[in-house]
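Field reference: sequence -> structure
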Amino acid sequence: MKYYGGCDVGSTYTKAVIIDENGKIVADTTLKSKINAEESAKLAMAEVLKQVGLEKSEDLEYLIGTGYGRNKVPFADENISEISCHAMGVHVTNPTVKAIIDIGGQDIKGISIDTDGTVKNFAMNDKCAAGTGRFYEAMARSFEMSLPEFSKLSLSAKNVIPITAQCTVFAESEVITLVGEGKPMNEIAAGIQMAVAKRCFVMSKKAGATDSITLTGGCAKNDGLKAAIEHVLKLKVVDLDTDPQLMGALGAAEYARQKGQAKK
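Structure field:
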């Protein structure tokens, strides 16, 4: 059996996937990124190689690096942008999905997928961290909660307390003030989720979403955000069978499979 790898070095998490010659995932891992992107890539690949009984990255037929630190994957045969890799990852997971909102650690992307898994169109907001993974980490910290706890908090809210600040720093200050005033925490959380959903609106339009969309990245696991996006965007959020945080690494591995087999 021949194996192909994808390594997605993100700003907050590094993901690695190994697939076999049929495209089936045989190993995967998600690790907190180190300051040094190359070290992150080495740790993630060491983990997935161990899972399939391989000693080194060179034992793979082909390996592609992607993500924020894609140029720092020392053993990659080449690198491909995370936009392309997320599109391909979603395509091989569920080919009926044609639009993605990818909420990463530092940016939000809207991606339209063509029939072959390539990118049809995309838009990106990387000017402000509001609405990204780092934003949610700051919000959870304000509530003195873990991210999984915070992601479900808004689901029990009967009302929404609007969050007006667009900047992560000012939003965190606004939230701390509201919590200090004794406002219902689930209603504040609902306001946060609605604010992020509204930021996703333009991205979804650029991605060409008409009736449904899927979320990728770690924030795709945020139940409160999914509910808010469905409410604001009037779109069905399609859940993926594979961990949405792995889509970039999976897409990279699939590109590696295609390129590796084309070399024959």
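Note: The CA atoms of residues 110 and 203 lie 4 Å apart.
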